[in-house]
Design a protein that fits this description.
By secondary structure, the chain is α/β, with parallel strands linked by helices. The protein has one domain (3-201): Maf protein (Alpha-Beta Complex). The protein has helices spanning 12-21, 49-64, 98-108, 175-181, 183-201, and strands spanning 3-7, 28-32, 67-77, 84-85, 118-128, 134-145, 161-163.
Length: 202
């Protein structure tokens, strides 16, 4: 039985990643917002990851009249009081690059020893019904910020993030290794049963 879900993004990379993380749901048809002309852009102006994820999912669900899945992810550094958090993607400014964000983070943590550089990635996923009701789940990955970037894989803060117990940054891991422990994978594992139930209900 086929069920269509809108992934509230225009990023094909994110769709492909979700597919890789949910192989058991191959019968669920996933579409991005690009397949729905006129779908509105949503300002990610919430003060929490939960607010942003829910806002994006609800907007897509109401416009497309389908169930919709959205996420918002942030890096929380303890020495910075949880920053950059909800502002992770634009930490160094509105149109900044990932490299600029990484440089600013390293500057903010300059001089701090490894034990003072603890941090976590949080990924909040929201699943919204065509009527606008929303459920959210959260995945976390604990670790610390490295003294300098390392690795060429991944994106965002991956070259700086050392998962707890690991001696490689996320950018040094293979896609399979990263998917096995990532915050996004943890969130997917929590949201997957809800999507499976929708598929089974038809």
């Amino acid at each position: 039985m086929t069920r269509t879900i809108v992934i509230a993004t225009r990023n094909r990379h994110k769709l492909r990643e979700l597919r890789e993380l949910m192989p058991e749901l191959e019968s669920v048809e996933m579409k991005t917002l690009d397949e729905f002309p006129g779908a509105p852009e949503v300002a990610e102006d919430g003060v929490t990851l939960e607010e942003n994820a829910a806002k994006k999912a609800k907007s897509a669900a109401l416009f497309c009249r389908l169930w919709a899945l959205a996420d918002d992810t942030g890096l929380e550094v303890d020495a910075l009081g949880g920053a950059p958090g909800v502002y992770s993607a634009r930490y160094a400014g509105g149109d900044c690059s990932c490299a600029a964000n990484n440089l600013k983070l390293l500057a903010e943590l300059s001089g701090l020893p490894p034990e003072k550089r603890t941090a976590r990635f949080r990924c909040v996923m929201a699943l919204a019904s065509p009527g606008g009701s929303v459920i959210t789940v959260e995945g976390r990955l604990e670790g610390r910020i490295a003294l300098s970037p390392s690795g060429t894989g991944g994106f965002g803060y991956d070259p700086l993030f050392l998962p707890a117990g690991a001696d490689k940054t996320l950018a040094e891991l293979t896609p399979g290794e990263k998917n096995a422990l990532s915050h996004r994978a943890a969130a997917v594992r929590k949201i997957e049963p809800y999507i499976a139930r929708l598929r089974d209900e038809g």
